[in-house]
Structure formats: structure tokens, C-alpha cells
Amino acid sequence: MIFESIGEHVSRAADRLRAAKIESPRREARLLLAYATGKTVEWIIAHNDERTEELPKFENALGRREAREPLSHILGEREFWSLPFQVNASVLDPRPDSEIIVSSVLAYYPEKDRPLKIADLGTGTGCLLLSILHERPTAEGIGVDISESALSTARGNASILGLSARATFVQSDWDSELDGTFDVVLSNPPYIPTAEIGSLAPEIALYEPRCAIDGGADGLVAYRRIADALPQLLEPNGLVALEIGQGQDSSVLKILRDSGIQIVSLEKDLAGIPRCVLGRL
User: Fold this and answer.
1) In this structure, are residues 121 and 141 in contact, taking their beta carbons and an 8 Å threshold?
2) How far is CA 175 from CA 149, 172, 186, 207, in A?
3) CA-to-CA distance for 65 and 22, rounded, in angstroms?
4) Helix (H) or strand (E) holding 133
């Protein structure tokens, strides 16, 4: 049965997404329709008047997004550092703000052939570690996460990107299963105070893995744990790069200094908010 045109599908979906308070309803409607039909967004735009039969996959995806399930969970993928990463409910959704960690580490070690050894604490999708390995062909690293489901996702991403030979993933409660020292320790730890999680956007509060966002009563529990481990994890003059939440810079700087870490810089994200702390032993 012939149903709606492509353009009608998009307009109807955009109206529903707008009512659900989605910020870019027409863009997301096209992405969902492209996902459901196996076409590109460019094809969707170019075939605005083409009529289609009913699209159950599109209706299902649209309903999930109306319920504020993250778009990346529905599509199964998120771009980070211009690379494709598989995403699901077991991992934190990679966000553009976190790219400052990657760019900061690369700027600190500009030599492309430097054989860096990297540890990524709370690796999730593996996006931080794998993005750096993609740019530094002689570097290698280990990603740790307490979630085996997250590690499975990270291993899959390493395979897709052709980086499995230089990236290993281990289940660990932070540093508990790590041996040896590293040139770089990086992390995007959970930093949202527990009491504030319920007030966040539904995409985060309802769908992100709790262990990846809950930073304890003051949001700083993970930083204390990581800081305690750094003197044993870092090579002399080794670099630590940590993502921080808005307004947490002074507290995290103090935690690091109390563990003997010398602050190198405080890097800002695209909105001008302090987002990444760099320090060295």
C-alpha cells in the first residue's frame, strides 16, 4: 500500500520530535528515515516527493526517539574524532566536548612516531584511546572498564578501526588490574553529583549507564581514586589528561596537586568551558 511521500514522512516525524522537545527535529527525522530505509540523508533530501509504503522500522525508531532514547543508541553509531564508533546502552555516548582530551594529548606529544604507552581508565566505547592510536601509529594502549559489556563494545570498535593489534581491553576497577607504568593516563570519569542526575536531560538520566555518569555525592569520587593511583601508573614526566565537569576545575586541580601532580594546563571546550586538565608527574 502506497502511504506517504519521503517529505511527508520527514515533516510528520519532525512534528512529533519537536513535541518531544528534540532540539533538531527535522535533521533527526531525516537521520532516522535514512537509518530505516538504508539510504543516505542526501538521498532522503533528493527524493522528497517519492512515495513509499509504510515503514515499520521507521515508526519504531521514531517512537524510541520520542521517548528520548539517544539517537546514537537507535542508529547504533556515533562519530567521534571523524571516526565511526559503535554505541549502545552499555557505554557513555561519545560527545564532541571530549575531543579536547584527544587534541590535548596529541599536541603535548606532536611527534607522530613517538612510541607512547597509554592507559585509558573507564574506556567505554574506547573512543579516547582509539582516536589517539589512530593518529599515532607507533603508540599502543590498554583500556580498562568495570563493565564487560562496555569492553566488548570497545573491542568491536578497535576491530572496525583496524587497531586491535595495538589496543587491549581489560576488566578492572580503575587501576586494580593494571601492571607497569604508562606515558599517558587519560580518563573521562563519571563526574555528575548523584543528586543532580535526575535533573539532567532524559537521554542522560534515563539511558546512559549509571556507572559512567555518577560521580558520587560531590562528583569527585573518581578523581580521588585516579589521583591516588597516578604516582604508581605514570612514567617519570608522564602525562595525565582528565575530562572534568563544569565548575569542577579548582577542585580537581587540588586533588591532583595533593597527589604530587604538577598541573600543565587547563584546556577549554568549544563553548569556552574548562573541560580537560593536563598534569605530569
Assistant:
1) no
2) 18, 7, 12, 26
3) 9
4) helix 127-135
What is the 8-class DSSP label of residue 76? Answer: T
- Compute the distance between CA of residue 71 and CA of residue 82 in angstroms, rounded to an integer: 17
Give the DSSP H or E segment for 6. Answer: helix 6-19
d(CA 55, CA 62): 11
SS3 12: helix
Using alpha carbons, list the distances in angstroms from residue 70 to 32, 61, 95, 204, 255: 12, 11, 12, 8, 33
Q: Which amino acid is at 67?
A: A
% of the chain residues with pLDDT over 90: 94
**Predicted local confidence at residue 52, as pLDDT:** 87
What pTM does this model have?
A: 0.93
**Spans in the chain with pLDDT lower than 70:** 1-2
Q: Give the pLDDT confidence score for residue 166 in this predicted structure.
A: 98
Question: Which amino acid is it at 141?
Answer: G
- Rounded to whole angstroms, how far apart are CA atoms 132 and 144? 16
Which residues, including other chains, have CB under 8 Å from residue 59's CB and lie 6 or more apart?
none
